[in-house]
Amino acid sequence: MKKLSIALLISIIIAIISGCGGGGGGINTSPTPPPTPSGYTITVSLSNNTVQEGEEVYVEARVSPDPPSGSVITWSQEPASPAGSFNPPSGFQTTWTAPKVSSPTTFTLKASLSVGGAIYFGVASITVQPQQAPPQNPPTISLDYPTSEQVVGTGTLLTILGSISQGSNPLKELQVLDSDNSLLQKWTITQPGDFRIDLSNFGSKGEKSLKIRIVDSINLYSETQIQVINDDNLLEDKAREFLRKYSCYGDGGTVRLGNLQTGPYARPVRVYINTVQQWKDLIQKACSFWTQYTGIQFELVVSDVAEHPFIAIADYTNEDKYCLAETFRCYQQDPHDIDGVIRLYKGWKDNCTLEAQIVVLAHEIGHALLTGQEVTDPPYPNVMWPYADASCNILPPIMQKATRLLYEWPPGTKP
Ligand SMILES: [Zn+2]
Questions:
Q1: Separation of 199 CA from ligand 1 center, angstroms?
Q2: What is the pLDDT of residues 12-60, one digit of tens each?
Q3: How far apart are CA 74 and CA 90, in angstroms?
Q4: What is the pLDDT of residues 213-239, one digit of tens each?
Q5: Which fold has domain 140-230?
Q6: How much distance in Å is there from the Cα of 325 to the middle of ligand 1?
Q7: What angle do CA 369, 373, 375 make, to 5 degrees?
């Protein structure tokens, strides 16, 4: 249509010139035709050729020659997925927001122009980078106990104390791994701060390092190590050594609460609490300390008639003594058997936290069960430490084994 009307116009112009006259007749005029667009070139330019996912880029289309007024550019991307977004979706200028990608991905941004039934395109490429994952910090762990090599063995518990802090992610669990990285035990721990675990599985025999590992929700971890010797024979040797030092009578035989027929292991240890019933819960917790570490069971009894062997706990909290509590070992007919009478003094009632009250009770029960002495070997902390306080609520493996041996042996056995 257009070509036709231009040709018509040209012929009209030629006709007018011809009609002027006076010109150089016979000159063959050959007029230059105006441009005849055979199409449109669309150039797409971007403010940036590489962007991070989620970033915006400015996009502009230039059309040459100028398209008829009212022409519209519409936008699309290839591949279509993952989809970014054009805002506005049409027009010579727009912005494109890059979609999320899992790896660097190149897209073609395409401008489309429809003129007179024909569609013209212009394109530009843009590469979208995935966001760099923010740096991840693992959780951290520090140990308070044990700080020295521990001899452990079958049937013992190794208490491990420490603290953990959270890294970039929530905490998941605490693991103990053997020297060959096999998992020995694990505990769910989701709160940072102090922790206390009792390890009962020591894995392979021998002298080695165990790893104490704190793991977060995406399995980042930190770890620290403790040294152990997992050796039942060595443990028994050390336990005998302990009993020679701390629980021997004049003839070298061990001293303990009651005997095997009536005492620990055969039946619960009777603990008389007539005058201290208001502290029954604390006493129960102190007894549980020994049950946990040695298996010895306890029975709290309110009765005026005490049956041997027994532990009796008495209220002396009206007496202000130099110590918080005291245990008297009362020898039975067999000089290797004792009863234990524990007196609680004013300081125990008035000057201790609940935790310290429990540890002091456990300490005094230990004077009846295990030794009349204060124990400095194994070193601090242990429940029989002189003037034991809340931080001494630990029974090291050697003392656990010594307690067990004491109640497995016939009365008076020499260690
Ligand atoms: Zn003591």
A1: 27
A2: 443 333 333 333 334 444 555 444 456 899 999 999 999 999 999 999 9
A3: 4
A4: 999 999 999 999 999 999 999 999 999
A5: Immunoglobulin-like (2.60.40)
A6: 8
A7: 95
Distance 365 CA to ligand 1 centre (A): 9
What spacing in Å lies between the alpha carbon of 375 and ligand 1's midpoint? 8
Instruction: Name the strand (E) or helix (H) holding 339.
Output: strand 337-345
Say which residue the tokens 């202000």 belong to: 320
CA of 303 to the centre of ligand 1 (A): 26
Picking from 202, 224, 199, the residue whose alpha carbon sits closest to that of residue 213 is 224
User: Tokens representing 218?
Assistant: 């995406």
Kindly report the number of other CB atoms within 10 A of residue 221's CB atom: 19
Whole-number Å distance between alpha carbons of 23 and 334: 155
**Relative orientation angle of helices 280-294 and 397-408, to the nearest 10 degrees:** 90
Cα–Cα distance measured from residue 384 to residue 394, given in angstroms and rounded to the nearest whole number: 9
Element (H, E) at 272: strand 269-272
Cβ-based neighbours of 103, under 8 Å, separated by 6 or more: 130
58 bridge partner residues: 95
Q: CB neighbours of 32 closer than 8 A, spacing ≥ 6? A: none
Rounded Cα distance, 225 and 146, in Å? 10
Phi/psi for 20 (5° steps) reads -70, -45
In words, the CATH class of domain 41-129 is mainly beta
SS3 316: strand
Does the predicted TM-score (pTM) go above 0.85?
A: no
DSSP assignment of 346-398 equals HHHHHS--HHHHHHHHHHHHHHHHT-SS---SS-SS-TTSTT--GGG----HH
Average pLDDT over residues 100-106: 92
The sign of the dihedral angle between the CA atoms of 278, 279, 281, 284 is negative
Residue 346 tokens, joined:
């004013």
Please determine whether the domains at 41-129 and 239-408 fall in the same fold group of CATH: no
Beta bridge partners of 207: 229
- What residues does each domain of the chain span? 41-129, 140-230, 239-408
Q: In angstroms, what is the span from residue 194 Cα to ligand 1's centroid? A: 27
**Average pLDDT of span 55-74:** 92
Domain range 239-408, its CATH number among 3.40.390.10, 3.20.20.20, 3.20.20.150, 3.40.50.300: 3.40.390.10
CB 146 within 8 A of CB 160: yes
Whole-number Å distance, alpha carbon 374 to ligand 1 midpoint, is 5
